[in-house]
Amino acid sequence: ARFHLEDLTGTMECVMFPESFGNHKDDVVNDKVCFIKATVDRSREKPGLIVNKIIALDKGRLYSRNGGSLR
């Protein structure tokens, strides 16, 4: 899946591979506030993100408590 993420500084193109997308497809929606775990993809002229995980804002604290890292 391809989509754009937006924050207060701009937007970035994102790619999510089928296995990751299958696990998080309900979280890829407009105007959802979330954390992501991703790798920067510099293989193109304009860098993008390869998203591995999406964590809903309301689940971020629980994720962190269970050993996940939010940086």
Task: Summarize the structure in words.
This protein is an alpha+beta fold. The chain has a four-stranded mixed β-sheet, covered by helices on one side. The protein starts with a strand and ends in a 6-residue tail after the last helix.
How are the elements arranged and paired?
Elements (H helix, E strand, L loop, with lengths): L1 E6 L2 E6 L2 H7 L9 E8 L6 E9 L3 H6 L6
Tell me briefly what this model is.
The protein has 71 residues and is an alpha+beta fold. It is built from two helices and four strands; from the N terminus they run E-E-H-E-E-H.
Q: What labels would you give this structure?
A:
alpha+beta, four-stranded mixed beta sheet, 2 helices, 71 residues, globular, 18% helix
